[in-house]
């Protein structure tokens, strides 16, 4: 599904150039659950953002479902992203001005799903995430665990092929964290490919494979399953 | 999607009430001003266009060109002669109508009322198709004793508009004659240069039409209709050829007799050009002459206000964008592209703009009476039913929404989602745009405030300058001639509150005469009695005042002012001769009066000649005791009515009528004050909004500073400094510009208030103080907040 070859990314300020990704290569197959680990600043999040088409690489190749997407412009990236990729962030990133229902509905709006269909699909996924009773609440009225469940709901409502999770349990206590990990595992079992960046060895154990990174490169790969 | 945008927008607006208030308040005021100005401008350019066939109506105008090519005079006036003469000599002129303003006395029972009236040719309604309520325009003015009334006047005299066939007694040549009402017209529209109340047929003596000397007699308006398809330039050429042939002899005589060397040129002025014409103005019965400059100044002010409000929107939206950065990131992540975000934010700007627009309409409606008063108009928003104005307002809405919303939409939609979602987002750069916009705002506000102060000072100067005579507690009463003045004076002086009574001519006269043999001097000529100068306390600097002891004074003595002496170049003015050669009359100078401002202060003191000839007396001048007006006025009226029972009585206080000369200035100063107030208010609420956002943005910094021991004053200083610097930059830009503009404007006045540095310094200090108050409120609040609170939120 994803084939990355010699991927490069630099960050430049006026004085220094920092290498974030240094000729990184790996491949992820459809249906896999991969955890990416490594110390802070090793390039995990940068990698995730490039894979999620939120950021550009400075060199190398990135094939998504057999298509080279490295040179895509913003509109093409947005289009590919909204149909194929869901995101879960450590800090939830829900829109404060929208209710739970409206937050989850948002991706469907941008993919042009009709209002009636949207309602069914949002309710279905909220039900699955066991947060239906909170549908009319605003994010600030929810606990962290609930907020992350809403974020997961928003990530999956469009039935993406790939979910990118950036430290999804980082802001949660262990029981809420476990619940979210279980949700991701369930999704993976239903066929969704998952790439998760994490610091937590505990969370990484839910995955099939761990890619360990250091200084913008992969150092080891552990296959767990 | 649209619903989602709307929801987000409204929740954002209600969550950020200060921000929404600033934007909506500013924009609605700006839009209201722009709406009023649009209305004003539309009215200005629509003047007279309601008349059917108006594009074929012209006014005969003329100018006198000196041998050196300079223009001696431009005038919209003609005489009774020009219309018939040109119509007979130029075939393209299909018809002509003469139109002359006048004032008649009307007897209603035992009461005599003065009424504005116009004399016109009988075909008036065939050319000017003003709608009639009753009667037939074609025949209405056929008879010499016919009168056409406006609806208002009909109601004034008869209490009804349906009064065709009724009679009114009009005074003509001293006696009251019955006139029959033949038609009643709808009141003329507000955007009409002709606003007649009463029309009668023009009566002319045979010699007024036969005597070619009347080519040089100008006192009314002549309108002509040209044949369809006639070329105006060709018609003008034919008119000139006709004039030069027909008036040949007369041109020669006038040139010889009066040493008149200028050449007269006749032209046709489109009727629709009259209202805004600076060279050939609407007068002699035509009203509402306007200067396009007013439209420019008003539009400028409205544009300033709207621009400042839009700047608030841009600045606050961009400054506030940090708060919405996460939303933008999320929307991008879940699939929004940049165009959709631009549409969303532009849409929000249009929502704000729409609310402001609706409010603006309300504000404009509320301000309309005030605005009408200032602009001398009777505008109403009912003009809205006109497609042009609706499209004008729609354009205003779209342009404002775009102006305010496009740049923020472009900035916000360009945010990088990665940065916004990882809280790494900072607004890049030194924010030069925001700073420049604040500078622009305050420069405009400063400019308007200085303009207002300068105007106030000049106005104060005009109304308080020593005129060289005492115009306080002086009453003037017209229609007192030499026949009544002696008795009138005698009766009035019986009242202990009446101190002095004098008499002079009514109105102003300008003429010319020769001095020193052949030197011509143009001057103002006034006829006054011996009591006039003492009453006004105008000093005689050489020679003597007129005196009843010198019987020859009324026939051969004149007094002149110092400007006259200077123009004549006299060393010994008393005893000099002034030669009115065209009337074959010579006068001897008996005294010199000190220069005084007999005309408005918009004119320099020109040569003035006072004559004692009692035949021209017409205006009684009465000095009363201070504070006795209430007691004296009824007494004066009573004496007048006993003496002149068939004349309408009126009076004026001289100081008030002097002040009225500066009515235009008084109105403009109010208008500017209003504009200045709005610009500074909107600029300050914008600054306030920015200071709130800046304090929020620097919350952590403030907390850290406090923890490290900074005092409240240091923090307030740190927070206010940046904004005050911007205001200071604005002052540096605006003050020199304002100085130049004010100086240029003041050049229009020969007598003007000095532009002193302290005026600019005081204005500048005032603006700095205002800005300081605006930003320090928020700064003090932020500085007083407990640091633990701000640090914990991080």
UniProtKB/TrEMBL annotation, chain A:
Domain ABC transporter positions: 2-225
Stored Pfam families: ABC_tran
GO CC annotation: membrane protein complex; plasma membrane
Highest taxon above the source species: Bacteria
Gene3D superfamilies (alphabetical): P-loop containing nucleotide triphosphate hydrolases
InterPro entries: AAA+_ATPase, ABC_transporter-like_ATP-bd, ABC_transporter-like_CS, ABC_transpr_LolD-like, MacB-like_ATP-bd, P-loop_NTPase
The entry's keywords: ATP-binding, Nucleotide-binding, Transport
GO terms assigned for molecular function: ATP binding; ATP hydrolysis activity; transmembrane transporter activity
Family indicated by similarity: Belongs to the ABC transporter superfamily. Macrolide exporter (TC 3.A.1.122) family.
PANTHER family linked: ABC TRANSPORTER ATP-BINDING PROTEIN YTRE, IMPORT ATP-BINDING PROTEIN
Protein name: ABC transporter ATP-binding protein
Organism: Lacibacter luteus
Automatic annotation (TrEMBL), chain B:
Record's subcellular location: Cell membrane
Keywords: Cell membrane, Membrane, Transmembrane, Transmembrane helix
MF terms (GO), sorted A to Z: transmembrane transporter activity
UniProt membrane topology term: Multi-pass membrane protein
GO CC, any one term: plasma membrane
Domain ABC3 transporter permease C-terminal: 301-417, 674-783
InterPro entries cross-referenced by the UniProt entry: ABC3_permease_C (IPR003838), MacB_PCD (IPR025857), Macrolide_Exporter_MacB (IPR050250)
Domain MacB-like periplasmic core: 20-239, 476-595
Residue intervals passing through the bilayer: 21-40, 293-314, 349-370, 390-415, 436-456, 671-693, 723-742, 754-780
One protein family per Pfam: MacB_PCD
Protein name: FtsX-like permease family protein
């Amino acid at each position: 599904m994803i084939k990355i070859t010699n991927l490069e990314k630099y960050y430049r300020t006026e004085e220094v150039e920092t290498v974030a990704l240094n000729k990184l290569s790996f491949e992820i197959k459809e249906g896999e659950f991969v955890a990416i680990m490594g110390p802070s600043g090793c390039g995990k999040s940068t990698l995730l953002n490039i894979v999620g088409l939120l950021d550009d690489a400075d060199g190398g190749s990135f094939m998504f479902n057999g298509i080279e997407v490295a040179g895509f412009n913003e509109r093409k990236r947005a289009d590919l992203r909204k149909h194929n990729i869901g995101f879960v962030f450590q800090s939830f990133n829900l829109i404060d001005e929208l209710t739970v229902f409206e937050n989850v509905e948002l991706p469907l709006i941008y993919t042009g799903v009709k209002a009636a269909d949207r309602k069914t699909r949002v309710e279905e996924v909220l039900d699955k995430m066991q947060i239906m009773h909170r549908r009319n609440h605003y994010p600030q009225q929810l606990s962290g665990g609930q907020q992350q469940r809403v974020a997961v709901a928003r990530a999956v409502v469009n039935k993406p092929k790939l979910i990118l999770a950036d430290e999804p349990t980082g802001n949660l206590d262990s029981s809420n964290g476990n619940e979210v990990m279980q949700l991701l595992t369930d999704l993976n079992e239903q066929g969704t490919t998952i790439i998760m960046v994490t610091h937590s060895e505990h969370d990484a154990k839910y995955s099939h494979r761990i890619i360990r990174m250091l200084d913008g490169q992969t150092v080891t790969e552990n296959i767990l399953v | 999607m649209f619903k989602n945008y709307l929801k987000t927008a409204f929740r954002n607006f209600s969550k950020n009430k200060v921000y929404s208030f600033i934007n909506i308040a500013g924009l609605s005021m700006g839009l209201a001003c722009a709406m009023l100005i649009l209305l004003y401008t539309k009215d200005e350019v629509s003047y007279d266009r309601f008349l059917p066939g108006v594009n074929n109506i012209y006014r005969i105008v003329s100018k006198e060109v000196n041998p050196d090519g300079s223009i001696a005079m431009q005038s919209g006036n003609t005489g009774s002669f020009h219309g018939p003469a040109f119509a007979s000599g130029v075939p393209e002129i299909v018809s002509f109508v003469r139109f002359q303003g006048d004032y008649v006395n009307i007897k209603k029972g035992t009461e005599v009322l003065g009424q504005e009236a116009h004399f016109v040719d009988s075909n008036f309604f065939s050319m000017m198709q003003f709608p009639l309520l009753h009667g037939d325009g074609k025949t209405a003015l056929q008879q010499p004793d016919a009168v056409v009334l406006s609806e208002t006047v009909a109601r004034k005299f008869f209490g009804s508009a349906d009064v065709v066939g009724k009679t009114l007694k009009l005074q003509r040549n001293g006696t009251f004659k019955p006139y029959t009402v033949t038609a009643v017209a709808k009141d003329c529209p507000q955007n009409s240069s002709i606003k007649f109340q009463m029309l009668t047929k023009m009566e002319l003596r045979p010699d007024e039409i036969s005597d070619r000397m009347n080519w040089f007699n100008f006192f009314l308006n002549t309108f002509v209709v040209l044949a369809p398809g006639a070329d105006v330039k060709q018609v003008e050429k034919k008119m000139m050829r006709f004039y030069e042939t027909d008036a040949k002899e007369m041109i020669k005589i006038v040139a010889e007799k009066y040493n008149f060397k200028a050449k007269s040129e006749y032209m046709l002025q489109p009727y629709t050009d009259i209202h805004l014409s600076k060279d050939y103005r609407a007068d002699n019965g035509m009203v509402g002459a306007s200067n396009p400059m007013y439209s420019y100044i008003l539009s400028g002010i409205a544009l300033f206000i709207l621009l400042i409000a839009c700047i608030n929107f841009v600045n606050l939206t961009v400054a506030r964008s940090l708060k919405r950065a996460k939303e933008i990131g999320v929307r991008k992540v879940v699939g929004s592209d940049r165009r959709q975000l631009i549409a969303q934010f532009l849409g929000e700007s249009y929502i704000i703009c729409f609310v402001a627009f609706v409010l603006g309409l309300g504000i404009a409606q509320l301000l309309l009476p005030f605005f009408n008063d200032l602009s001398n108009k009777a505008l109403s928003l009912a003009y809205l039913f006109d497609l042009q104005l609706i499209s004008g307002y729609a354009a205003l809405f779209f342009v404002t929404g775009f102006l305010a919303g496009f740049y923020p939409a472009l900035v916000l939609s360009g945010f990088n989602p990665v940065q916004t979602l990882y809280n790494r987002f900072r607004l890049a750069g030194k924010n030069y745009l925001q700073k420049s916009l604040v500078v622009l705002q305050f420069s405009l506000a400063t400019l308007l405030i200085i303009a207002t102060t300068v105007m106030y000072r000049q106005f104060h100067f005009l109304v308080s300058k020593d005129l060289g005579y005492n115009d306080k507690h002086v009453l003037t009463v017209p229609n007192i001639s030499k026949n009544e003045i002696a008795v009138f004076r005698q009766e009035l002086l019986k009242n202990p509150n009446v101190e002095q009574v004098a008499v002079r001519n009514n109105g102003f006269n300008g003429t010319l005469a020769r001095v020193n043999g052949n030197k011509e001097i143009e001057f103002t000529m006034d006829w006054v009695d011996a009591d006039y100068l003492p009453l006004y306390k105008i000093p005689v600097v050489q020679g003597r005042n007129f005196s009843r002891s010198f019987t020859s004074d009324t026939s051969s003595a004149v007094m002149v002012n110092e400007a006259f002496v200077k123009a004549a170049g006299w060393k010994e003015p008393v005893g000099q001769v002034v030669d009115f050669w065209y009337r074959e009359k010579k006068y001897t100078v008996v005294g010199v009066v000190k220069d005084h401002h007999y005309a408005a202060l918009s004119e320099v003191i020109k040569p003035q000649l006072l004559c004692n000839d009692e035949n021209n007396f017409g205006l009684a001048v009465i000095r009363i005791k201070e504070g006795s007006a209430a007691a004296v006025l009824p007494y004066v009226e009573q004496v007048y009515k006993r003496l002149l029972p068939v004349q309408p009585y009126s009076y004026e206080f001289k100081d008030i009528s002097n002040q009225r000369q500066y009515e235009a200035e008084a109105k403009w100063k109010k208008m500017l004050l209003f504009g200045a107030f709005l610009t500074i208010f909107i600029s300050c609420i914008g600054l306030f909004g920015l200071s709130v956002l800046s304090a929020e943005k620097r919350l952590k910094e403030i907390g850290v500073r406090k923890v490290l021991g900074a005092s409240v004053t240091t923090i307030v200083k740190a927070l206010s400094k940046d904004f005050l610097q911007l205001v200071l930059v604005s002052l540096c830009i605006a003050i020199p510009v304002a100085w130049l503009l004010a100086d240029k404007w003041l050049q229009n006045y020969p007598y003007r208030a000095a532009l002193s540095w302290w005026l600019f310094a005081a204005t500048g200090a005032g603006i700095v103080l205002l800005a300081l108050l605006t930003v320090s409120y928020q700064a003090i609040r932020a500085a007083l907040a407990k640091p633990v609170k701000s640090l914990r939120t991080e």
